[in-house]
Prior knowledge:
Structural class: alpha/beta
Shape: elongated
Radius of gyration: 45 Å
Largest sheet: 6 strands, mixed
Distance between the termini: 92 Å
Number of helices: 12
Strand order of the largest sheet: 3-4-5-6-7-8
Amino acid sequence: MYRYSVDNAVTYTSEDLVLFRESPFACWMERLHLENPDHGIPPDAGTTEPGDTMTRQDDVAESLLAEGKQVTLINWDIREPQRRSQTLQAMRDGVDFIVNGQLALGPLSGSANLLMRTSGYSELGNFLYIPCDTQGKTTIHSAFRLCFLADLLHGLQGQLPPKMLVIRGGDLLPLTTDDHIYHYRAVKQRFMNAMRDFRKHRMPDPAESSHFGRWADCANEVMRQRAERDEIENSPLQAESEAVADNEPLQPEAGEETLQVQLQNPIQARLATGRGLKVSGTLADQARALQVQVVPDVETTEPQASAEAADPALDNLSFIGREPSSKLEDMDAGFDVDCIDDSDYALPDSEVAVKPVPRPFSNSLNTGDDFDR
Length: 373
């Protein structure tokens, strides 16, 4: 990439798209270096700026002229604006071969080894041009670079070249454009979006690139600092500190809850805290949750003292299990017994505004089940 000499606009070549396809990080670094050469990040020692891999093909022009072909040779050493205009003029003239041409459209520009005229229809007339690679060395990017030129020709002549040629001496390898152009255009769209949205503070993740170009030292330093930061954030000491910080705001709320519970009567306190009580949604749910227990012999077993013996809420229930067995056998089990009555634990008149009406505790349970009483 470089700045065009006419309007100083950022211009991209096929090499930039090849680099972006393999390393968005390296491509971003090259754009950063172009926008701000004094950014302070040095490139790797012994490396040079990426340049155009295309070389002049004057010998190809001489070979074609020797065969009596109509050839236009563009001077490789003149400035790019003149090379662009001379290439377009040769295309309009309909010459058979154009050597060392320069194709450009919008922010894209690229050198063309050889443009060959072929039959067809385009905005130029009843002919069109196809790109040819005569570099002498085939790489995995040869077809991709030809697609770059074919796409430019599509915009300049109004017709996509149906074929692309790879020429190596006497060998000719034709490539069908449709087999390669769609991959190129997908990469081109991503590349143009990345260049349009370029920001100096938004570096791509180096880990998502297959190589780092001439910025390997920078990429390794970025990934090293990230690994150290992640190690600190995920350390047990850091996790323990965060857990303590999360629990600190809950302490005042816990104190307020304890104070409120202390101001309630024993039954209300047990209902508020849920300690010792397990209440389900309905009376049927409570009945199903009951567990069968073995009742000890009331004549031989004395009640054991427990931590809940001092609970005032259980004082009125202390008579259970102390009646003689003969009386228990004579009792009729067919009537209902309210084990707890809210009225037994109502606050004194001086502490409440309105004295609650005594009612059985069982009536306060909301149940949809219909039991025979």
